[in-house]
Design a protein that fits this description.
Helix content: 55-70%
Organism: Natronosalvus hydrolyticus
Protein name: Replication factor C large subunit
Number of strands: 7
Family: Belongs to the activator 1 small subunits family. RfcL subfamily.
Number of domains: 4
InterPro entries: AAA+_ATPase, ATPase_AAA_core, P-loop_NTPase, Rep_factor-C_lsu, RFC_lid
Bound molecules: adenosine-5'-triphosphate
Shape: flat
Number of helices: 26
Subunit structure: Heteromultimer composed of small subunits (RfcS) and large subunits (RfcL).
Largest sheet: 5 strands, parallel
């Protein structure tokens, strides 16, 4: 299923609907760039065409685009490398006269503690840029004052329902869908100025029907609260995209929780390509949820729900039947539920991300579950010490990763050993990534029940980052980019995971699968 918001993304400024004045300003900014040489901030609500306008402008001007997205990687050096290089080099000519357009998406997200370097670096890059730069942002005032003062500013306004209807009409025509004009109007009215939502809604309602009527368009009021298990059943087995979206609105869970439930249960019924597609949507949803967390802008919840519900339902290729034993989200997902644990998890994830050169999302989704499996299933004290040393974890953090409950003497002794190990190895191997070094040892040792296994020396032998992904896939956490591998990997994880447990600490709960606390 292709995503209509992508398929029908405007390619020239004249196809961007609404915001005539802003579009004119943007074009003028580009035409006169040689005279003023300033960057421009394009800001406004989500889903109204800001990013599309920037790309369309580049297209109209014949300028190649260099794009950087805050949520993908906020590290200062990456910004420096990518944007700095793009904005300074004039080597890519190809009809553009050496110009390139640098687009910094989510420019209001380069802030806060972890991103301080990022924010400062963005300002510096923007000031020194030798090429036109467009900064796209939702919240104008979330950007630093010096950045704001330095740039020109163009505000995009919400797109009126009157301007949304023709976009929907055009898509229906191109998709060969008959429609009642009132149905389009109803969609446009219910999405209050957000054109991306309108297109998503249209796709959810219309994709499988040839005639779109106003009755098809339900505005998503919560009529009754649906149980989560019924919802999973409907989502995974029965509903089309539209039905799934409606069902999602009726479930009394936040999108964060829904994501956890769906993520953990969908591999029980989906496999192969459909599972890979479903995960693609879930990972989009996760990205939107990340944006909610960093911006506190809850409008993005909608997009997360679109992906979780409509996306997962639309990924289904084979009919599903029978009864499936769905379970609550696994240990890891559950831990993500409360604010305190989420903060702790994200704190650890950030540190691992810095160390491994991976994004926080990848760490949370792929590396941390692997570390849990490694320290828990492998029951290898030395690996746990090595991990603790590598990421400089404290006792609470070790307990968090290993799932061994409150801080105990045993955990503390691990932290002590790790401190010693850190001191001993600090000089020789100060910045090596732990994860990449670890791989073959931990895989080989994964069935070991004893303390013997990988040695600390093994842990400090540097290898490439690719190995980390390999091992993660082998360990069944789905890091592989190969789709069928991914599906296999997930099944393995499922089989290994004793996570049906309702207990807060399933690591200690099930089938003789004892947690680290038993082992220590
Ligand atoms: N003004 C518009 N004209 C035509 N299509 C639009 C417009 N606004 C949004 N869309 C549709 O919505 C999609 C998302 O738009 P876009 O990414 O440009 O929004 P945005 O304002 O940059 O949102 P965000 O701030 O969330 O990144 C586009 O691919 C396009 O399909």
């Amino acid at each position: 299923m292709s995503d209509w918001t992508e398929t029908y993304r405007p390619t020239t400024l004249s196809e961007v609907r609404g915001n005539d004045k802003a579009r004119g300003q943007l074009k003028k900014w580009a035409d006169t760039w040689d005279e003023h040489r300033k960057a421009v901030i394009v800001h406004g609500s989500p889903g109204i065409g800001k990013t599309s306008a920037a790309h369309a402008l580049a297209n109209d001007m014949g300028w190649p685009v260099m794009e950087l997205n805050a949520s993908d990687d906020r590290q200062a050096d990456v910004i420096k490398r990518v944007a700095g290089e793009a904005s300074k080099s004039g080597t890519l000519t190809g009809g553009s006269g050496g110009r390139r357009l640098v687009i910094l998406d989510e420019a209001d997200n380069f802030h806060g503690n972890a991103d301080y370097g990022g924010s400062r670096e963005v300002t510096r890059v923007v000031k020194e840029a030798d090429q036109p730069v467009v900064l796209v942002a939702n919240e104008f005032y979330d950007m630093s004052k010096s950045l704001r003062n330095f740039c020109k500013t163009i505000e995009f306004r919400d797109v009126s329902a009157r301007s949304i209807v023709p976009v929907l009409r055009d898509i229906c025509r191109r998709e060969g869908i008959e429609f009642e004009e009132d149905a389009l109007r109803a969609i446009a009215d219910s999405t209050s100025g957000d054109l991306r939502s309108a297109v998503n809604d249209l796709q959810a309602v219309a994709e499988d029907s040839e005639v779109l009527t106003v009755d098809d368009v339900v505005t998503g009021e919560r009529d009754q609260t649906e149980g989560i298990f019924d919802f999973l059943d409907r989502l995974i087995k029965e509903e089309d995209a539209h039905g799934a979206l409606q069902a999602a609105y009726n479930v009394d869970e936040t999108p964060d929780e829904l994501l956890n439930w769906v993520e953990d249960n969908v591999p029980k019924d989906y496999s192969g390509g459909e599972l890979a597609d479903a995960y693609e949507f879930l990972s989009n949803a996760d990205r939107w949820l990340g944006r909610v967390r960093s911006t506190q802008n809850y409008t993005f919840w909608r997009y997360a729900t679109d992906n979780i519900a409509a996306g997962v339902a639309a990924s289904r290729r084979e009919p599903k039947g029978g009864w499936t034993r769905y379970g609550p989200p696994s240990y890891w997902s559950k831990l993500g539920r409360t604010r305190g644990t989420r903060d702790r998890r994200d704190g650890i994830a950030q540190r691992i991300a810095d160390r491994e050169g991976a994004s926080v999302g990848t760490v949370r989704r792929e590396i941390m579950p692997f570390l849990e499996a490694m320290t828990n299933l492998c029951r290898n004290r030395e690996l746990t010490v090595a991990m603790t040393a590598a990421y400089d974890l404290d006792a609470d953090e070790v307990s968090f990763i290993t799932g061994s409950g409150a801080s105990t003497n045993k955990v503390e002794s691990i932290v002590e050993d790790a401190t010693t190990q850190r001191e001993e190895t600090a000089v020789e191997h100060s910045e090596g990534a732990f994860f990449a070094q670890e791989t073959d040892q931990s895989t080989e040792d994964s069935s070991a029940d004893t303390d013997e296994g990988a040695t600390p020396e093994g842990v400090t032998t540097a290898e490439t980052d690719d190995n980390a992904a390999d091992t993660t896939a082998k360990a069944g956490t789905g890091a592989s980019s190969n789709k069928s591998d991914e599906a296999d990997a997930v099944e393995t994880a499922d089989a290994e995971e004793p996570a049906e447990a309702d207990a807060e600490e399933p690591a200690e709960a099930d089938d003789g699968q004892s947690g680290l606390s038993d082992f220590f």
